[in-house]
Structure formats: structure tokens, C-alpha cells
Amino acid sequence: MLPYWLLIPAFVIVLATTIYPLAYSFVTSFREWDLTKQRRPDGFVGFDNYLHAASESGFQNSLWVTTIFVVTSVALTLVIAMSLALLLRRKGRMHTFTRIVLILPFAMSPALIGVSYRFMFNPEFGVLAKGLGAVFPALEGMPWLADPNLAMAILVLTDVWHWAPYMTFMCLGGLASIPRETEEAARIDGASYLRIFFGIILPQMKGVLLVTAVLKTIFALKMFDQVVTLTGGGPGTSTETLAFFVFNVGFKWYDMGYASALAWILTAIMMLISIWYVRMLLSDRKMATA
Amino acid sequence: MADVRLVDIEKKYGNFLAVPQLNLTIEDGEFLVLLGPSGCGKTTTMRMIAGLEEITSGDIEIAGKRINDKPPKDRDIAMVFQNYGLYPHMTVRQNIDYPLKLRGVDRAARTRRVQETAEKVELEALLERRPSELSGGQRQRVALARAIVRTPSIFLMDEPLSNLDAKLRVTMRAELKHLHHELGVTTVYVTHDQMEAMTLASRIAIMREGRIVQLDTPKRIYSEPADLFVAGFIGSPSMNLIDGAIAGGVFTAPGVSFPVDQPDRDDVVLGIRPEDLEISTAPDAPVIGKLYALELTGESTLVTLRTGANSVCARGPADHEAEINAPCHFVPKPGARVHLFDRPSGHRLDGLSAKGQTL
């Protein structure tokens, strides 16, 4: 019996902090609950909260913003991580040093990254705004964070800056597992460097890149911290990501039922992506062993 | 087809001199084996020929042309790797086809040549499989097929059989030999397995610490090893090497005395192969000691005796039986070869030196 008794504390903690809130939010998503009026959830409204999402412009905007953010951020992170990994693969004199430097952006808190980028892109005194203005005079005085497109670009930039190093390490791991002979054989067989990369290295990196892409996608879907500290969702609603929108609905407007429904929509999207990923991975393995 | 000349080749990694001043000519159509213990520079030498490793100084010529600065693909070579180096995401057919595709051979000719090559190495039935679905021997065949499909002028093989089990290694060895006979392509083959070297080579270059210590036919390397290193490296079980001195035309060591045709001197090593000794009861046998071990190998028994600090091994008949620690005598067989080496330098004493040997 003792083992079960010892398990109980951990089980209780998980139940109280994860499973109960999840179940509670799921139930809440089918109820009406205005926190400014009621202390407890009100009556059941069926799928009304979900149906409301389908027609509400705030949600649709955040879905669109999130899609743009996820696609650009994932694509850029992967390309940069893969390129950096190719550069860092060769063990040079700066090997250890570059790796230590590389881990620094990842060690920083995302909220802090948002704050520091807001300073750096301040048109009056921001070091990046001023620096870019000095190099390209056309950019002098550019209202970086006041322009919807530029604000989005900077939001993507902070996220790529934060994640690319970590993903570089994943790619480095993947590259290290590719037998060197396959590249050397291709060199002797007559392949150019580009062909070796696209024809030999990339196909063997498929599994690693798939994992990296899915992880990055899920992290990007949750994008919240930098939105709060860098743009506040603005200008307007141009950087209002789904996670930020859910937060606003729940804790600014106190519409808990609707917020719960939105959170579950986000969860469903992530689950779909995960399932798709597992399928891809399994089919890949089948191809390799069948 | 082509010959390969290495002229004063040198390879340094930082301050470490991996291969110092190597000179070697590989004749057209020859099967040359680079043989040596791990870390002796044999693989580095081959990789320099392939162009996978830059040379620090010296020249490499293939068919009379200096190719130092040419990339691997322009050297007209094909290489078989120890771990095969197959493309895991391609089928066997695509693997064999890849070098042809890269060289812009047209589709019809490619299909025909892949088919022909696959037949040559008995892979026709496996063309649509992936490397992960093949056994070690089959993968090795794919690697071979990929190498021969574009008929290069030189084959480079880097320990191609070392990942196979013992039985398969013997079969593949015979296939390699047959293939070389059939194609007649100049082949450079790296191995640390002396058996592979002996059976496959037209000539063997034995390497140690980046230098070639002996370059000769397998027969000569076996019968006239240039120094103690080669004497101990070639042959299984290895040659008996006994420390002693020559006085009055007789080599003597504790329990050992051999008449030899050499002037008196100290610090001599006498070498005699186990297969050149036989068990005897003669009281005046040149090797006298106590039986230490009997090892039946199937076709014969290895008999080891101890005398003083030395162990001496002889190859006796399979049915030989005796008590451990019983007195044991060996005599040389008629026509046996006795080798003498200078202990300090390791060189052979009867005039043959490690350098400058010719066929």
C-alpha cells in the first residue's frame, strides 16, 4: 500500500492545479458567466459561446493575427536555426564560446525581451531605431511600434531572436546524427554543395525539423508575454494574438464563459497540430522500416 | 584505368604530423592494400587520394595529372566506406543511380547500367528496398554497386568488410577479388586485417606511424619481413620472436640454439614462424622447454612451450596430445626459414632493409 500513499501528494497537486481547472474551464465554456455580476457561473447556454466566436470580429482578428505570426515566426526560426547549425557544425576555435553566447537569448525572460525591444525601437532614444536611422536615413524617425505592419514584424523578430538559438541546438543535434559518410559519398559521386544540402542532408533532417516545427508552432500559438510588454496588442488590434485576446476577454472584460470557449478552441488547434505531427512521424517511420 | 603517384605527401593536423613525407606509386590495374594498426595513417592517406582530406604538402597524381586542387568529383574515383555511406532516404535503385544522375547520364542509359550493375553484385531482387531493410552484406553490395556503376578509373575502399560478420567477410572477400579480376580497375584498399591484405593484394604497403615500413607482394612480406614490426604483424599465430645473441655461428637464448650464417653479435632477435617448427623428441633439438598450452584449431594444434622468459609456438598435427608442463622439443621443418633482426633498430639482418625494396 505504501507506494500508493506516497503517490497521493503528487496526484493531489496535479488534480488541483491542472486537471480540475481544465475540466472546470471546459464546463464553463458551455455556460454564461459575467464575473462583474456573478461570483459563480450562471446557466448553461449550450454551444452559444463557440457560436459567438464564429461571428465575433475580435476573435477573427486574433485568429488572423496569430496565423500570420505563427507562419512567419516558425518559418524564419527554422531557416535561421538550420543555417546557424550548418555554420556552427564545424568545430572551430570559437566552438565553445559561440555556443555559450548562443544560449543567452534563450535564457532571457520573454516579458523582459518585450520591454527591452520596446526601448530599443523607441523613435526618440531607441538604440536600434537610431542605429537603423543612421545606416539607412530613410528609416530615421520611423514610428516602429506605431505602424501595424512594423509592430508585427518586430513582434516576430523578438520571438525569432528568443527561439532561434534553442532550435539551432536541436538542428545541431540532428546534423550530428547524420553519418558523415553519406555527405562524403555524395561529394565523390559528384554532388555540388547545394545538392548535398537539399538532396542528402535535408531529407535526413526531416524528423528533427518536424519536431522543431511542431514545438515552435505550439510555442508561437501561445505567444503572450511580448505582446503584453512590447505592443499591448496594438497599434489598434494589429498584434492581438489569440492568447492575448483570450486573456483580455477573461480578465479585462470578465466574460469567463466566452474566454473559456476561446481557450478550448486554442487547445483544439494545438491538439490537431500534434495529431498531424504524430501521424507524419509514424508514416515516416513506416517508410523506413516497412 | 590509371596509376596513382603520391610524391612527398605530408599531412599535419595542427602540430600533429599524421603522415610524414610519404612516397608511393600504385600501378595501373593493381590491387594495393594499405595495412597497419589503427592510427597508422592508412585511412588518412586514402582520404587524401579521394580529396576528402587536404594535403599539407606534396603532390598527388592520377594518370600522370596533378590533382591536388581538384575536388573529389573530378578525380574519377569511387569510394566504398566502412559504414557504407548509403543514402538512407533513397531506394537501392536510387542509391546506385545517384552518381549517374549527377553526371547527367540520360535516363535510358542509367536504367540499363543500374540493372547491369545490380546483376553483377546480385541485387536485382532488392532494387526497390531501402538501405534500412537490408542486411549488412546486402548494404555492402549496394555500396559496391554504387562505386562500380560509373566505371571510375580508381576504386578506394576504406575497411569495407570490417562491419560484417566473420563468415560473410570471407565470402565478400572472394567476391571483391573476383570483381577486381573482372573489372581490372586500380584499387586502393585500407584494412587492419592482415588476412584480408594477404588474400586480396597484388602488393601490400604496411604502414606504421604514417610511414610505409614495407611495400611488397604478400608472398615476400610473409617470407621476408623487413623488420620486427612487419614480422610480428603478419601471420597468425604471429612469428616467434626470441631475444638472444650470436656466438660462433650459433644463435643462443635460454633453451634455444640455432646455427646461423651470421657474424657474432649481441642484441639479436631470431624469428621463426610456428608453421616452420615441428614437434620432436630429439634430445638435441634447437628449442627445448616445457609444454605451456595446447590449442586445437581444427586442421592443426598450436603447441606453445616456455623456456626461460620466452614462449615459442609451433603448429603441430591436429591429433597431437601431451601433458602440460611435460618436456617439449621443437625442430625446424625441412626448408624452414629463420629470420634475424637487429634488436635496437628492428631491421632485418640479412641485407634486406625496410626501404628501397623492389618487386
From TrEMBL, chain A:
The way this protein sits in the membrane is described as: Multi-pass membrane protein
Gene Ontology BP annotations: transmembrane transport
**UniProt keywords, alphabetically:** Cell membrane, Membrane, Transmembrane, Transmembrane helix, Transport
Family matches, as SUPFAM superfamilies: MetI-like
Transmembrane annotation, as ranges? 7-27, 63-88, 100-120, 150-172, 193-215, 256-278
- From which domain of life does this come? Bacteria
Its principal location? Answer: membrane
Q: Which InterPro entries match?
A: ABC_transporter_permease (IPR051393), MetI-like (IPR000515), MetI-like_sf (IPR035906)
Places the protein is found: Cell membrane
Q: Which GO terms describe its cellular component?
A: plasma membrane
- A single Pfam family, by name? BPD_transp_1
Q: Does the keyword NAD apply?
A: no
Domain named ABC transmembrane type-1: which ranges? 63-277
The family annotation for this protein states: Belongs to the binding-protein-dependent transport system permease family.
* Protein name, UniProt field: Lactose transport system permease protein LacF
Organism source for this protein? Jannaschia donghaensis
Q: Which gene encodes it?
A: lacF_3
UniProtKB/TrEMBL annotation, chain B:
Q: Which GO terms describe its molecular function?
A: ABC-type transporter activity; ATP binding; ATP hydrolysis activity
**Cross-referenced PROSITE patterns:** ABC_TRANSPORTER_1, ABC_TRANSPORTER_2
Task: Give the record's GO CC terms.
Answer: ATP-binding cassette (ABC) transporter complex, substrate-binding subunit-containing
Q: Which Pfam families match?
A: ABC_tran, OB_MalK
Domain named ABC transporter is located at 4-234
**Family of the protein in this entry:** Belongs to the ABC transporter superfamily.
| Name used for this protein in its record | sn-glycerol-3-phosphate import ATP-binding protein UgpC
